Amino acid sequence: SQKIEQNSEALNIQEGKTATLTCNYTNYSPAYLQWYRQDPGRGPVFLLLIRENEKEKRKERLKVTFDTTLKQSLFHITASQPADSATYLCALVRNAGNMLTFGGGTRLMVKP
Amino acid sequence: NAGVTQTPKFQVLKTGQSMTLQCAQDMNHEYMSWYRQDPGMGLRLIHYSVGAGITDQGEVPNGYNVSRSTTEDFPLRLLSAAPSQTSVYFCASSYSLGRGAGTGELFFGEGSRLTVL
């Protein structure tokens, strides 16, 4: 069966360090992968997209990598801040690009 | 520009009751979708639409009905609510998802929290 797996345990890091979150998938051939941020009681907000033919994408302090051989995406936040504390979701598009399927999300806690 | 608006924000139902969750977007997006979010289960796609008059099933469509008579509106109907439908429901829309172009970014509403007793 198709699965998108993110670490369900919270990631706790110290302010200023780099946070690295993992998204693994099986039985997919995604056209692209997206990352979203979700704050408590709010809807998810889009952060970045990376396509299957791209290895890395950057946006300010965010960096996403995509390894279609390992079937894995890594999401990095450099110089992390307490305001980065949230749940981060990865999502893959499938079914001719009409369905976006989400992983379970990883909660990030950045401590001052 | 309000984005995606969901109503109601909170609702309590009794088993067997019916209700409609409303969703409207003012961004002229062709693509709209409904997800439910449960602890430990992440976001699961219920139904989606790629344009007015066109709807299709997602991963967990049973117990839910949708229609798309206009580009702006995409209501979700629960015909006979069950306790298993207790969840947070999110409506989302996109300009480019389904077109193979752009970022396919989904714009989400703030959620509707439904409790079925």
Short key terms for the protein model shown above:
heterodimer, A: mainly beta, B: mainly beta, seven-stranded mixed sheet, 11 strands
Describe, in plain words, how this protein is organized in 3D.
- The complex is a heterodimer of chains A (112) and B (117).
- Chain A has strands at 3-6, 11-14, 19-26, 32-38, 45-51, 56-59, 62-67, 72-77, 86-94, 99-102, 106-111.
- Chain A is an all-beta fold and 112 residues long.
- The relative contact order of chain A is 0.33.
- Chain A starts with a strand and ends with a strand.
- In chain A, the strands form 2 sheets. In chain A, strands 2, 4, 5, 9, 10 and 11 form a 6-stranded mixed sheet that branches. A 5-stranded antiparallel sheet of chain A has the order 1-3-8-7-6, with no helix packed on it.
- By secondary structure, chain B is mainly β.
- In chain B, the strands form 2 sheets. In chain B, strands 2, 4, 5, 6, 9, 10 and 11 form a 7-stranded mixed sheet that branches.
- The radius of gyration of chain B is 14 Å and the shape is globular.
- Chains A and B meet through strand 4, strand 5, strand 9 and strand 10 of A and strand 4, strand 5 and strand 10 of B.
